[in-house]
Amino acid sequence: MVVNIGGLNYLTFEGILYRMRTGCPWRDLPEEFGKWNTLFKRFNAWSKKGIFDLLFKLLSDNTDTEWLFIDGSIVRAHQHSSGAAASTEDEAIGKSRGGRSTKIHLAVESYGLPVHFELSGGQTHDIVHAESLVTDSPASDFVIADTGYDSSAFRDFIEKQGSTAVIPYRRNSRKPDKNIDDVLYRYRHLVENAFAQIKHFRAIATRYDKLARNYASMLALAFVMIWLPMWVD
């Protein structure tokens, strides 16, 4: 039985979740969810309208803003993710020694729950998206990151935002005082835990979507699944 409440087809939504969990091609979705092309067209339409991103932002609006952890993680781009029709953009797919890949730039709050993310080609350095991760996330007292974000300019930027940077210096740094809050830095694993959670979904761990917009929608949906238990009594 197909249930519709407020125009939302729950069987279709479950089909999208199934595809996210298994990473199967849209054409291989079980017939119980309906016609595969109907599911894809609906997902694509919702993606264009920003429905998944809206759900993510609504759930992540109530956050603990004391700490903000940022990091980047690379996912392999499957060969089927290439060749997006009518697109002249790179679609956040880059080439490196490991092949074609996409990088997820993520910010999580004090409890390790995602609050903002961005996409780029896999070869993009973490520092390129550092400032936008901070400005597009809720204001925080501390910004914690690894040595990939070791930059005097970025530390100055964080200070201007009214936050304190907790970023270790590289070994070859000439900074005389390299001390940071080691106790707080130990909690940086929270952002790594968030990456581990979403990569349980096969359509996230490997990118199959041709369009960056659609892959971002899948990511937003994965983050919604992380947030949902926090809203269940």
Overview features:
single chain; 233 residues; alpha/beta; 7-stranded mixed β-sheet; two-stranded antiparallel ribbon; 9 helices; 9 strands; 38% helix; globular; disordered N terminus
- Estimated helix fraction: 25-40%
**Total number of beta strands:** 9
Sheet bearing the most strands, described?
7 strands, mixed
SSE succession: EEHHHEEEEHEHEHHHEH
Strand content: 15-25%
Estimate the mean pLDDT confidence. Answer: 89
Form type: globular
Terminus-to-terminus distance: 27 Å
**Rg to the nearest angstrom?**
19 Å
Residue runs with pLDDT of under 50 for 5 or more positions: 1-8
Question: What structural category characterises the helix and strand content?
Answer: alpha/beta
| Count of runs of 4 or more consecutive helical residues | 9
List the helices and strands and how they pair.
Layout: E1 4-5, E2 8-9, H1 10-22, H2 36-49, H3 51-59, E3 67-77, E4 94-96, E5 99-108, E6 114-121, H4 130-135, E7 142-144, H5 152-160, E8 164-166, H6 182-185, H7 189-198, H8 202-205, E9 206-207, H9 212-231
Parallel strand pairs: 3-7, 3-9, 7-8
Antiparallel strand pairs: 1-2, 3-5, 4-5, 5-6
Helix pairs in contact: 1-2, 3-9
